[in-house]
Sequence to fold (309 residues):
Amino acid sequence: MQRGGLREAAATLESFLTERSQGYLAGISSPTTAWEASSRLSPYLAYGTLSTRLVVQQTLRIRARADERHRAQLDGFLSRLRWRCHFTQKLEDEPELEVRNQWRGADGLRLEDEAAWPSTVRSRFDRFTHGQTGVPLVDAVVRCLRATGWVNFRMRAFVASFAAYDLWLHWRPTARFFAPHFLDFEPGIHFPQFQMQSGTTGINALRIYSPDKQLAEQDPEGAFVRRWVPELERVPLQFLARPSAMPSSVQAESGCHIGTDYPPPMVEHEAAAREARRRIELARRSEGQREARAAVFQRHGSRRPARRR
Fold:
């Protein structure tokens, strides 16, 4: 876990702006490279050890003497600082976003009350939050977060999407579980983002991530998965996305017997994603929802600033 304090914060900012930011845009999406490529400033911003103003001023100072390539990296970072403020402002403007759906047409789509959950939903939630879904990248991200207090943004969005669409879990219990595990928990980012990744904003495209595609693109050698899911350490790369597809002989050779050492997948992604998309699109087309979604956009939609003449 990252250490707190002003000295650590200042050193992290300096190392990012002068060295690590050189690979920022290319490295922030992968859970293997984001540890160094990301700024890692989020805990210090969340606790107020560093202010956004200071970070912006320091970034502009370095940018002024950087070469063209480095300026592009720093511009990408400044853009994300602006998005951070944008999402914080959403909750400031409408505090109810912490406790109810931003788009009320999503009410009733998923069961929020944990006391009313049937055993099947409880089992899905428990297996998900303990990294036992049988989907390697999901399990690796959850286990990593529980151990370190941090994972990169792409992986946060990925597991939130998996919980919402593949497992059809309500975003509120999932967000409550993740909140104390994030070392950089920031309510203004946390709750609006969980809603966005769950399809309950009413104005954003549905972000349904393919676990196979994310593993192939973001952890192509399987280093992250093997580190955090050691049961899969000897599984051949060709079976790492779907260990349940291993023939029994390969399971024996790798020392990973599905159902004993590692669980089979809880859901079939393609079918679950199709059904989730169908349900949400049906709700979006319901009577009166066009106007309701337009009202959400009017209040919370991002705006591109008008160009100066």
